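Researcher: Sequence recovery benchmark, item below. Answer with residues only.
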């Protein structure tokens, strides 16, 4: 439990977390920008209970199982009006599923880079509208996990009318998007929030994803982007990843010279004391 600052002039009391990196509960007009998220106990970002007007942009995600949940449940009708924009994010290494997983609502997925999910990238249930434009989807080597999309716990006959489309996306390494619905532009008006750029520009569009000024496009923040990621937030592997970074080639230059600086400072201090001490 802690005070969490939401702006330069406002902070509020945050009670015990349910394990999500960021939880949005019954809120509107939310912007999550330039964050680096990994290794959480539950989801990296969850938005539920009628939340809407959400933009998730310029973030770097890695090393996690269930990345992002949008919508409380298939039966929760207030989520039918949910509108979410997911733009210019880099979904990096060791991610499994839910990028996002949608229940109801209108979701615009635009100009993101998806790097080798392990199960699927975009999933949903409860008839969400998903508008995928100008993204790059790189499938894993697993021949059974090439599909970008997944209709979760839903029979084929039930989702054929759902409005899911892929427009201007680049599919790499055998990735494919299973579209559905009528494909009529009117159906996607509420799932359209920003003019998509060409997917050819994905490297440039996502080069500053994650925390600003740290590590470039891959946002190399030590344990956030290295190690095997097998724990997916279990806690045991996090310490191993961190210790590997601090003892390996990723160690910052300033940290590497710190012991030498301390030794030199101690030596100079001893010399000064010897010179200034009165002769016996």
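Model:
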């Amino acid at each position: 439990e802690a005070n969490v600052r939401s702006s330069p002039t406002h902070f509020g009391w945050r009670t015990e977390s349910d394990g999500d990196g960021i939880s949005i509960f019954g809120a509107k007009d939310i912007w999550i920008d330039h964050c680096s998220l990994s290794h959480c106990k539950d989801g990296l970002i969850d938005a539920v209970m009628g939340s809407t007007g959400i933009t998730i942009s310029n973030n770097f995600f890695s090393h996690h199982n269930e990345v992002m949940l949008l919508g409380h449940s298939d039966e929760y009708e207030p989520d039918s009006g949910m509108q979410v924009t997911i733009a210019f994010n880099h979904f990096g290494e060791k991610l499994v599923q839910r990028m996002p997983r949608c229940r109801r609502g209108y979701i615009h997925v635009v100009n993101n880079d998806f790097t080798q999910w392990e199960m699927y990238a975009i999933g949903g249930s409860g008839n969400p509208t998903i508008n995928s434009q100008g993204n790059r989807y790189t499938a894993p080597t697993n021949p059974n996990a090439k599909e970008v999309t997944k209709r979760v716990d839903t029979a084929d006959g039930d989702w054929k009318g759902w409005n899911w489309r892929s427009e201007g996306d680049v599919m790499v390494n055998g990735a494919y998007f299973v579209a559905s619905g009528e494909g009529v532009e009117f159906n996607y008006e509420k799932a359209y929030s920003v003019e998509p750029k060409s997917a050819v520009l994905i490297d440039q569009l996502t080069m500053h994803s994650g925390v600003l000024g740290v590590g470039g496009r891959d946002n190399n923040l030590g344990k956030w982007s290295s190690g095997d990621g097998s724990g997916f937030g279990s806690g045991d592997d996090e310490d191993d990843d961190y210790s590997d970074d601090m003892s390996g080639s990723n160690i910052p230059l300033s940290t590497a010279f710190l012991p030498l600086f301390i030794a030199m400072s101690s030596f100079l201090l001893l010399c000064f004391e010897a010179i200034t001490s009165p002769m016996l």
